[in-house]
Every structure is written in C-alpha cells, then in structure tokens.
Amino acid sequence: MKRVVAQGTFDLLHPGHVHYLTEAKAMGDELYVIVARSANVTHKQGPVIGDSQRVEMVASLKPVDNARLGHPEDIFVPIEDIEPDVIALGHDQHHDEDAIAEELGRRGIDCRVCRASPYEPDEEMVLSSRQIADRIVSSRS
C-alpha cells in the first residue's frame, strides 16, 4: 500500500481543500491527513474552528482514510509514525520542499515530496478561508 500524507489547517473547508485532498489521494492508496493545531498556525491568522472539529470534518471527506491532529512541537513526529511514501503539499502552502526533503533524509524517512496542482475555480467559487470570511462580513454589513 502506498501511503500519502497531506497536511494543512483546513479552517472553513472549501473546494480548494477538496481538490488538494482528492489529488493527494490519487498519488497513492491511503491518504493520511495531518491537521495543524491552532497553536502551531503562526504564518497566518489562527483558525476560527477548533482543532477537534477540523479533524472531524477532514476525516469525513471521501478521499481521506485517516485524519489526525499534528504534534504540538514537532511536525515530523506524525510523519515518522505514518511512514508515508509521498508527502503532498498544497500548491500554495508556504513549505519549502527542499527543506522538508532534507529533514526527512536526516530522520531516515524515505519518501518523496511533491505539490498538488492549483484548482481553477469559476468566478463564483471561493478558494480560501479568508475569502469565505470576507464574503460573510460583507454580506452581513
């Protein structure tokens, strides 16, 4: 069985998330998703939805075989546990593929790192949690 790991915050789920996870699932047989802990989301505003609720929502998606909360201190701990063949990054995630590959090698984890393709929405679609929040605020003003 070829295992794939995807990861993200997954706050306010949208079609871009579904595209990413569907594409990640197509890279292997089993898709494991690591959901970032709210306390670890430092590159953008923290999530609106709580940790356990985001894990539950992601776990319910068709492409996902297993969803779990990330480690509180070391993002590589769940990866060591899962032993994936592929780590699939979202097309717009801020992670450095080379730095991840280097750390995987240092830890003796043999897997490749690749990026999912961008999702091409129609004009009505929102593809970020920020767009969803902005649309809610503007519709309520």
Fold topology:
Elements: E1 3-8, H1 15-25, E2 30-35, H2 51-59, E3 66-69, H3 77-82, E4 86-89, H4 97-106, E5 112-115, H5 129-140
Parallel strand pairs: 1-2, 1-4, 2-3, 4-5
CATH-defined architecture:
3-Layer(aba) Sandwich
End-to-end distance, in Å?
51 Å
Mean pLDDT: 89
Task: Determine the structural class based on helices, strands and strand pairing.
Answer: alpha/beta
Low-confidence stretches: none
What is the name of the CATH superfamily?
Answer: HUPs
Number of domains: 1
- Biggest sheet features: 5 strands, parallel
| CATH topology title | Rossmann fold
Shape: globular
Rg computed from alpha carbons, rounded to a whole number of angstroms: 15 Å
Catalytic activity: FMN + ATP + H(+) = FAD + diphosphate
Enzyme class: transferase
Protein name: FAD synthase
GO biological process, one term: FAD biosynthetic process
What's a quick, concise take on this entry?
By secondary structure, the chain is α/β, with parallel strands linked by helices.
How would you portray this structure in words?
With 141 residues, the protein is α/β, with parallel strands linked by helices. The protein has a single domain (3-139), classed as HUPs (Rossmann fold), CATH 3.40.50.620. It has 5 helices and 5 strands; from the N terminus they run E-H-E-H-E-H-E-H-E-H. The protein has helices at 15-25, 51-59, 77-82, 97-106, 129-140; strands spanning 3-8, 30-35, 66-69, 86-89, 112-115. The chain has a 5-stranded parallel beta sheet, sandwiched between helices. The protein is globular. The mean pLDDT is 89.
